[in-house]
Amino acid sequence: MGIIYAIGIIVCIVACWLWCKFVMILFGKIYRIINRKKIQEQNNPYIQAQKLKMANDKNYEDYLEWMNKHSYGVPFQKIMTREEFEAENKISSLIS
Fold first, then answer.
1. Do residues 55 and 8 share a domain?
2. Which one of 13, 34, 71, 80 is most buried, counting C-beta atoms within 10 A?
3. Residues 50, 79: one domain?
4. The pLDDT value given to residue 58
């Protein structure tokens, strides 16, 4: 009789474990389907680079407005990314 109870408990534990795995897989797939666009944007380095460039441009514009408002003198040059710096060098070498 004790063996039947032990087997029953083991079967219940395995069934609970399988149910938990099923629920985790199901909700994981649902989450990925709902947030597919966000996940793709996070994994795409080009989108991330463009977002960083746009944020840098906005921050520099805010800085220029702040400098004009408070009259602190000549503002610093804009911080350029490596790609912007290389493009600027190519343009200047072609001009001269």
1. no
2. 80
3. yes
4. 93
Domain co-membership, 49 together with 28: no
* DSSP states of 27-74: HHHHHHHHTHHHHHHHH-HHHHHHHHHHHHHHHHHHHHHHHHHHT-SS
* Residue range(s) defining the domain that contains residue 50: 45-96
Confidence of residue 70 (pLDDT cuts 50, 70, 90): confident
What one-letter code names the amino acid at 91? I
Look at residue 59 in the predicted model and tell me its pLDDT.
92
Q: Which of 19, 24, 22, 51 is nearest to 38 (CA)?
A: 51
Residue type, 38: K
pLDDT of residue 61: 92
DSSP state of 91: H
- The answer to whether the beta carbons of residues 10 and 3 sit under 8 Å apart is no
